[in-house]
Amino acid sequence: MDSATVAAYAAIxxxxxxxxxxxxxxxxxxxxxxxxxxxxxxxxxxxxxLHVLNDVVQALLRLKTALxxxxxxxxxxxxxxxxxxxxxxxxxxxxxxxxxVGSPEMLPILDDPINKFNEFKxxxxxxxxxxxxxxxxxxxxxxxxxxxxxxxxRDSPTLVAELGGLIPTLETFLRDFQQQGRRDLDPxxxxxxxxxxxGASRSRLVRLWGRIVSRNPIREGH
Length: 222
Description:
Helices cover 82% and strands 0% of the residues. It is mostly helical.
């Protein structure tokens, strides 16, 4: 192989290497931008979700405290239930976003607690609310001859027992959610792996070039 041929091979190899490097750099940048966007979206979704879910748990604790009084204050119970409804609406919006951007490891953590809360709300909280605070006015009509407070005292233990089972489940869920969120938002280690792969690929190209030259030594005088 004469020097001109070797030079041509070298130019081709340099062009290939340059093009591959540029393509690799662009891909890395696009990948890094996408990962950064996803990480920022997750960070906001997780922070907002943790905040509103904690608000729901705190409101449930206030309801339990209000119902445990010997004579529950009707207005206090009513306002707390209304506050729970508002916070559940915010939590639903936050959960929708988490389902969109959350990690595959995060999503299974959500399912069981959300299902248990929905069961509690549909089977216990909403019936209690409709019984004691119907849209048409005070709930005395449900209990002829008794006062609203007396009826609420009679019904409260069942709801308190359900709250006693639900609240620890949600508190455990919040801890699991927070721990998984920390793991999801740890600094990404992929760039190191990309650098290792690039170094290995570059070494393979150099070895290939070495084999080409060794098999086709430059002959003097050409």
